[in-house]
């Protein structure tokens, strides 16, 4: 099976990279073809699926723990790919078409195209409410184009999941990710309750500052008054200007210096990567491991010299070092991260460094007085960022779960704003009835993923506590012991154990929210 899976996955990853970096239609066609081919590896011979189910059912009899784990992971790949033969090509076409759309679409203001980075710049810097509204609406225009193919894709995903006996694709995805749905939503409900009043108080302060900055009453604040199209990042209130610390800096050099300090090499990754914005290029950021049996790891960014891209560059390279330093002797099926949320945790742990005092002093090179002046605002900024992102994540998780429960409900547009009002405490734009939810790329090409960002933040805080307890310097920055700890204790394990067992081995405990709550709430 591995001999058949490996070349198709490698080719698919390469086509995805080529489409993201060029936007060329031939790569979209290749992505569609390879997506279907990958599915057929698992579905072309029903007898293999039958055999796989028998192996999985009898896995406890396998004496070799590594082989047993390979059977578990291969079974999950088979189960994820079980699609009716007449739907395979259509699903592949929809997924490739949506990838192409999110890569090449540009919203417009007064008929002129505007890039995502430009929209973000307006939302961070402009004090003109009308200019902000126009930019925000431009960022949502893709929703109307994505809505119908996305809903068709949701229905087809549901059909394949229900054919296997799952409630819907959302339930299927969680089970195949080894995430218990009841435990997950109990955790999310607990986090929502713990953060509700702290977030309400925080948002009242933010709103007062934003209203003063934009010269409008607080009650007239709308989603475009915040600093990004989804209110998933901390708004810029003018209380502290972190961008100025990077305005004349080489973001790539600072990132390289960061990883040098923990003894993990990223120059080879950067040499293969695509780091700066240009026409016909994906406007987002991601990391990809083209071939998991090699060190061909790459990141895509659209770097500008500001705090956001400093954080994002460190974040994506966090994913990259995890992939690069997976145990070399691990077999193909185990040479991946323990889980989505563990690789997200490393990315988040690295991204958090960008405005922390240790990093500002040791890597950015600020003097002691400058660091002391930035320390309190930086801590406040990270607390704000975590609370804002958590509340936004709750919108995504609850919306996506409901979307798969019934993609044909007529009130999806209204539901999006109901959840935004409930969790983010936003005021919806009057009279707006647009598929703004479909502007979020993850719903199309990274389905049932967003809960892993939340779990990743919790894991990052738990790993941070373990680093403080288990390394001589008790920090991440400029600590080769920390780099060795992450490389040897976490990365090298790959997927040999279920993710929560991996976390327990590395930190001494299974995942819980205590460290995150202590750090940020």
From TrEMBL:
<dbReference type="Pfam" id="PF01401">
    <property type="entry name" value="Peptidase_M2"/>
</dbReference>
<protein>
    <submittedName>
        <fullName>Uncharacterized protein</fullName>
    </submittedName>
</protein>
<dbReference type="GO" id="GO:0008241">
    <property type="term" value="F:peptidyl-dipeptidase activity"/>
</dbReference>
<dbReference type="InterPro" id="IPR001548">
    <property type="entry name" value="Peptidase_M2"/>
</dbReference>
<dbReference type="GO" id="GO:0006508">
    <property type="term" value="P:proteolysis"/>
</dbReference>
<dbReference type="GO" id="GO:0016020">
    <property type="term" value="C:membrane"/>
</dbReference>
<keyword id="KW-1015">Disulfide bond</keyword>
<keyword id="KW-0325">Glycoprotein</keyword>
<keyword id="KW-0732">Signal</keyword>
<dbReference type="GO" id="GO:0008237">
    <property type="term" value="F:metallopeptidase activity"/>
</dbReference>
